[in-house]
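Design job #97: recover the sequence.
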């Protein structure tokens, strides 16, 4: 009988030990405030200076730099365009003589 009581007492103590509270987790140091990335820039009015020029790599780069765009591309009249919009991209739309007819962002 005594051994049964001892076993029960031991099981009771083990059960109580499992119910003990754990200390709260240490709070993490405050994370650095993340800044939202700036939206891409593109000002097509600043790239108007290339309208009428024949297209080449120099004209594309000159227009991209003037517009403050991340990238630039030339779009031919007969070219099938894709519908992906990128706010930081300058588009140079060409006429049939491969001269810049208009500029736009997107």
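Job complete. Output follows.
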């Amino acid at each position: 009988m005594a051994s049964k009581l001892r076993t029960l007492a031991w099981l009771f103590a083990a059960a109580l030990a499992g119910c003990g509270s754990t200390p709260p987790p240490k709070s993490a140091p405050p994370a650095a405030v993340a800044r939202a990335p700036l939206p891409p820039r593109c000002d097509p009015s600043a790239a108007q200076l290339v309208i009428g020029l024949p297209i080449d790599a120099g004209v594309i780069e000159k227009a991209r730099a003037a517009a403050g765009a991340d990238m630039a591309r030339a779009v031919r009249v007969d070219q099938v365009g894709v519908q992906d919009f990128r706010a930081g991209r300058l588009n140079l739309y060409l006429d049939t003589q491969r001269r810049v007819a208009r500029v736009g962002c997107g």
